[in-house]
């Protein structure tokens, strides 16, 4: 080959290198940041906001570069399948959605191996005979008053799930009372001001001055975030609530800071 031909060949190769690098960079940027599984099986009361919640998480995935799979098939809770996901999101599950021991074992293995969990609203109205799950969520549902407006005091500043929320957040929802106060084992992110609404549930009680409504905590090797909000369809078009949920998803998926030790204040 002549000297002119060699120079031309080398020049062409040099020009091709940036294009190849650019293509590789673009492909990497387009890769999903992480993958989540939304689970919405119910064996008790079924919230009519579940489809709205699923659609909202799917939209958050599209807008924030993560992949969302959805299911009500509990048999997908097996070791091989759960290993695909960085977080599993229970949207208003009720009753005993994982009714086979093998499904429960697989979910427990998943958390023990560093998996993430997001519980929304009635996720606390599930698994009453499964104490491990109760610990994962943080507290079991007791009762609630009628849907009404209340003020949420945002306590856990500095977390991705609270960064966009006002200190005092007024919103309408179905406000849960819980069978126990989870504070000793979790980082409380938000509490309800019971002075701003009628907190007495249908069983006749309320939680009093310290009424957690959202929290997060490390649990059995994994990461857990729970919010008691999300009963209403309107919640899933509320930008502040969606920011709250998105932060919880990212935190549990390992895609954002998980500053959720009970003693944490940052």
Quick rundown:
The protein contains 6 helices and 11 strands.
Explain the overall architecture.
By secondary structure, this protein is of the alpha/beta class. The protein contains six helices and eleven strands. It is 30% helix and 22% strand. The termini are far apart. It folds into two domains: 1-31; 35-253, Rossmann fold. The protein has a nine-stranded mixed β-sheet with strand order 2-1-3-4-11-10-9-6-7. The chain has a two-stranded antiparallel ribbon with strand order 5-8. The protein has helices at 3-30, 50-64, 79-82, 101-112, 131-137, 239-253, and strands spanning 35-39, 67-71, 87-91, 116-120, 141-143, 148-154, 168-173, 177-178, 187-193, 212-219, 222-227. The protein is globular, with a radius of gyration of 22 Å. This is ThuA domain-containing protein. Keywords: Signal. Residues 1-29 form the signal peptide. InterPro entries: Class_I_gatase-like, TAT_signal, ThuA-like. Residues 35-250 form the ThuA-like domain.
Identify the CATH architecture of the largest domain.
3-Layer(aba) Sandwich
Tell me, briefly, the overall form: globular
Major β-sheet, in short?
9 strands, mixed
Question: Would you tell me the structural class of the helices and strands?
Answer: alpha/beta
Provide a count of the helices. Answer: 6
Tell how many strands the DSSP assignment holds: 11
Percent helix among the residues?
A: 25-40%
Q: Classify the beta-strand content into a percent band.
A: 15-25%
Please, what is the CATH homologous superfamily of the largest domain? Answer: Class I glutamine amidotransferase (GATase) domain
Low-confidence stretches: 6-29
Level-1 CATH class name of the largest domain: Alpha Beta
Compute the separation of the termini in Å. 67 Å
CATH topology title of the largest domain: Rossmann fold
Number of domains: 2
Strand order of the largest sheet: 2-1-3-4-11-10-9-6-7
Order of helices and strands: HEHEHEHEHEEEEEEEH
Mean pLDDT: 91
Radius of gyration: 22 Å
Protein name: ThuA domain-containing protein
Keywords: Signal
Organism: Streptomyces aureus
Signal peptide: 1-29
